[in-house]
UniProtKB/TrEMBL annotation:
This is Iron dicitrate transport regulator FecR. It comes from the Bacteria. Transmembrane segments: none annotated. Gene3D superfamilies: 2.60.120.1440. The lineage of its organism: Bacteria, Pseudomonadati, Pseudomonadota, Gammaproteobacteria, Oceanospirillales.
Length: 323
């Protein structure tokens, strides 16, 4: 690869890292736009970032550079080949896994995983149905004593099947905070920041925190638990499982909370200006077409949806929109 392309890719990777940081603001948006328009080579490099994101989901800029270079040399690389390159980079100590909290490499190498915006259904060996929500990862460990699903990241929906083994094995979903044991049920498990959320749609589950605290959650209920304690169960919205049908259904939700949920299904940054965060939204939106959902906002509220790039979108007051 010639030097000018390498420099452009390096800058694009750095821009993407800045875009994904929590400190990025309007000044960065303007600077990125200026950088993109200053040289066709910059646009070329950014398109390579775009193509890479489509392949492997959200990759931080400081991990992306060498991957981009390898992909540019032979862009028909398989997903496994790209991941192997990232693992090699991490294994040699040139990069740190901890620096990228959203999708560490062990998640990419999990038994089953989904990219950002992808929803996938699996049938396990025992007949259990498992649906992985966006940016999710699981490992499956079935043995003579238990059927174990380890949720590494994201959210899953489980519809358990009866165990055909001579001695029925319990079906368990494990997270860093504890274990959820199915009791002939349909339920979802979602990892949040430092806690796990469980929602039960049929029958019940038994929750055991990492320190041994035990709780029950019944159909029509949900609860969250940490490694130490579980919150009291609360009523479950009947549309809580809408994501399994590619839908996000909300009722009187704050706009900032809605955008946080919608943002789970698209790569990059989706920002909400504080001045419009208080608006309340009700409706049903397809998560496989988040752009359409964003465009609908400008028809319902006095807001502007500003697409700086595909990976950088800001929802702001209409009079704050900058051409």
């Amino acid at each position: 690869m010639n030097q000018s392309r390498r420099e452009a890719l390096q800058a694009a990777a750095q821009w993407y890292a800045r875009l994904c940081s929590e400190e990025a603001g309007p000044a960065d948006e303007q600077a990125l736009q200026q950088w993109l328009s200053s040289d066709p080579m910059h646009q070329w490099a950014w398109q390579r970032v775009d193509q890479l994101q489509a392949r492997i989901g959200r990759v931080p800029g400081h991990l992306a550079l060498n991957t981009l270079e390898r992909a540019e040399q032979h862009f028909s690389l398989s997903r496994r080949s790209v991941l192997r390159g990232l693992v090699l980079m991490l294994g040699t100590g040139t990069l740190g896994v901890a620096a990228y909290r959203h999708a560490p490499v062990e998640l990419w190498l999990a038994d089953h995983h989904t990219a950002t915006g992808e929803i996938k259904q699996l049938t396990l060996d025992d007949g259990t149905t498992l649906i992985l929500n966006t940016a999710s990862a699981v490992d499956i460990h079935f043995n003579a004593n238990e059927r174990l699903v380890i949720l590494r990241e994201g959210e899953i929906m489980v519809t358990t099947a009866s165990d055909s083994a001579e001695s029925p094995r319990p079906f368990i979903v494990q997270t860093p905070q504890g274990r959820v044991r199915a009791q002939g049920t349909r339920f979802s498990v979602r990892m949040l920041e430092g806690e796990t959320q469980v929602a039960v749609f049929e029958h019940s589950v038994a929750v055991t925190t990492r320190t041994g605290s035990q709780n029950q959650c019944f159909a029509g209920q949900q609860l969250t638990f940490t490694a130490d304690t579980a919150s009291p169960a609360t009523s479950l919205s009947p549309t809580e499982d809408a994501w399994t049908r590619q839908m996000l259904v909300v009722q009187n939700m704050r706009l900032d909370a809605f955008l946080a949920e919608l943002g789970r299904y698209r790569t990059g940054v989706l920002r909400c200006a504080p001045s419009v965060a208080h608006y309340r939204i009700t409706g049903a939106f397809r998560v496989d077409d988040t752009d359409q959902a964003l465009h609908a906002l400008s028809k319902s509220f006095p807001v502007s949806v500003n697409f700086r790039t595909r990976y950088w979108v800001t929802v702001d007051e209409k009079n704050n929109f900058r051409q």
